[in-house]
Every structure is written in structure tokens, then in C-alpha cells.
Design goal:
Largest sheet: 3 strands, antiparallel
Helix content: 10-25%
CATH architecture: 2-Layer Sandwich
CATH class: Alpha Beta
CATH topology: Alpha-Beta Plaits
Strand order of the largest sheet: 3-2-5
Structural class: alpha+beta
Length: about 110
Amino acid sequence: MTFVVTDNCILCKYTDCVEVCPVDCFYEGPNFLVINPDECIDCALCEPECPANAIFSEDEIPAGQEEFIKLNEELSQSWANITEKKDAMIDHKKWDGVAGKIQYLER
């Protein structure tokens, strides 16, 4: 089982999770982070660190967010690895908690 970054990360992109990952399995896109499922060791350290509550165990993903399992796998193959915490996106407070942000995902 692996952890998956879901919808609420889009346009927020907090990176607190990156800082605690012991295997550096996070990858960064323009406005979203993903976890490489082949690298994730299911340690669960990232989940409580996410201020946006956007990270879930693959078997606990909220209904309607299942597409993010495939998105994390796909995008982690082409995005750059991120290993250090950065500032969240400029309007992160405005977007945190907004539902249905998949339409804003930049690849």
C-alpha cells in the first residue's frame, strides 16, 4: 500500500510532507505534489504533516478521489523530485478546502 496526494493539494502545494519523507518519494509539478508509489515505503509520516489534509493511504482515499492514485503514479514519472520544504503557493489560504480543483491541475 502507498500514500496518495489528492485534490486539496492543488493550488496549495504545502511541502511540509516533503521534509519528513525518509525516502524522498515526492515529486513537484507547477501547482501540485505527487508521491511515487514505487518509492513510498508506507511509513505514514507525511499524512499528519499535510496542513491541507490532502494525503491519504491508498486504501482510505475519500470517495471521488480515486483518480489520484493513477495521477500520482503517472506524474511522478515526469516531474522533478523534491526533497526540501518550500513556501506554499501564494494563494494557498484561498484554495485550501475548495472542492473539485482537478480542473486547475497543471501538468
